[in-house]
Amino acid sequence: MWAKHAQGTVIRQAQGAWPQGTYEEHHARDGFAGDCSQLYRAHPTTEWTRVEGPIRPRGILTDDLPAEDDADERAQPTTLLECADMRLSISRRRRPAPYLFRNADGDTVILVQRGSGLLVCDYGTLEYGPLEYLVIPKGTNYRLIPHTTDNLSYVVETTAAVGVPDRGLLGHFLPFDIGVLDVPRLDALRAHGSGLDGPEWEIVVKRGERLSSIFHPFDPLDVEGWQGSVTPYRLRLRDIRPVTSERMDVPPITHATFAAEGVWFCTMAPRIWQNDPEAAHVQPYHRNVDYDEIIINLGSPEGDGVPGRPIGLMTVTPGGMNHGPGAAMLRHPMERMPFYLLNIDTRQALRPTSAFEQAEIPDFYERQRFSGPGR
């Protein structure tokens, strides 16, 4: 327990109903998990005149954004953002690659926005579909076989191992029971193998950001059995049970799905919004000084968009920048969050690639203050 000091106009319980004529801002460390102070200001901190320099919030629409692997079956996903700990790319693969792929630089997390297909790997086969995660450990030989042609996935490669964060006082079953994770089935793999034809079978290996190829005179997915704890797995977003509170905004860390060193994956699932008369009915303003924040709107469980938050909208807010609810959210607070959001936080500063910059929404950082809900 840390010492708490107070001066001026405050409330006893942070994130309650703000004092009349004030706007609560969080000045927090380690995301929302470390020490924190609340500042009660006379104006929303997002009411800036302009922002100069790379700290400005940025946004792109990924729904129709081109990806190299759409037309070129040998191509890799198209990278949009990167730092020392991770790389975020998009994939539109409509035909399976003519090779197996092995990422020797780190783990891979794939979140499917649209499309369905089959993951074929050393451990067996695993079907995937919309609004599902695939987590693939470093060094796994695998191949994605799409069953559809209109596909969009977000591909995150981390340098450190991806795992499920410690749930602490939440227990074993929130935000999801480990038992809902599905692993590949070996029986189908033993019957059909990789699906590639000889006389040579190719494995493309990425190491040190460079690609090499290993060729075999046999199908490399020739596994007859396996046991252990290293395996790809699938998590359906519908199996996530979000933590909710009627009386205050629940911080993003409670929605943490996966984590790697320097990277957090948080899945904001549809849920009841805070609605108690003594609650603040919007998120607090904040300056998340230790993390850059990526938010991707994944749409509703029915696949619908939300006014002001089109499916595929990706926003990036660098650490230290003011952010919080827009003017529209203040005027019309939500009663229920009706859509899924993917929130990725990185300790290292993100670098946009040329593919991101070419698709960037002009003057996005000026307009987002007046848009709909945002974290």
Walk me through the topology.
Elements: E1 23-28, E2 36-41, E3 58-61, E4 78-82, E5 86-91, E6 100-103, E7 107-114, E8 117-121, E9 124-128, E10 132-136, E11 141-146, E12 152-158, H1 186-192, E13 201-207, E14 210-216, E15 233-236, E16 256-260, E17 263-268, E18 271-272, E19 285-286, E20 292-299, E21 313-317, H2 327-331, E22 336-337, E23 340-346, E24 351-352, H3 354-359, H4 364-367
Parallel strand pairs: 1-19, 6-13
Antiparallel strand pairs: 1-2, 3-21, 4-5, 4-24, 5-12, 6-11, 7-10, 7-12, 8-9, 8-11, 10-15, 13-14, 16-17, 17-23, 18-22, 20-21, 20-23
Compact overview of the structure:
The protein is mainly beta and 375 residues long.
* Major β-sheet annotation: 7 strands, antiparallel
Mean pLDDT across every amino acid position: 90
Low-confidence stretches: 369-375
Give the percentage of residues in beta strands.
Answer: 25-35%
Q: Which secondary-structure class do the elements indicate?
A: mainly beta
CATH second-level architecture of the largest domain: Sandwich
Write down the Rg. 22 Å
Q: Which percent bin holds the helix content?
A: under 10%
- Counting DSSP H or I runs of 4 or more residues, the number of helices is 4
Name given to the CATH homologous superfamily of the largest domain: Jelly Rolls
What number of structural domains do the residues give?
2
> Order of strands across the biggest sheet?
15-10-7-12-5-4-24
Structure notes:
- The longest helix is centred in the middle third of the chain and has 7 residues, at 186-192.
- The chain is elongated.
- The chain has two domains: 23-61 and 241-370, Jelly Rolls; 68-237, Jelly Rolls (Sandwich).
- The protein has 375 residues and is mostly beta strands.
- A hairpin with a 2-residue loop joins strand 13 and strand 14 (210-216).
- Mean pLDDT is 90; it is low at 369-375.
- It contains four helices and 24 strands.
- The chain is 6% helix and 33% strand.
- Residues 100-235 form the Homogentisate 1,2-dioxygenase N-terminal domain.
- This is Homogentisate 1,2-dioxygenase.
- Keywords: Dioxygenase, Iron, Metal-binding, Oxidoreductase.
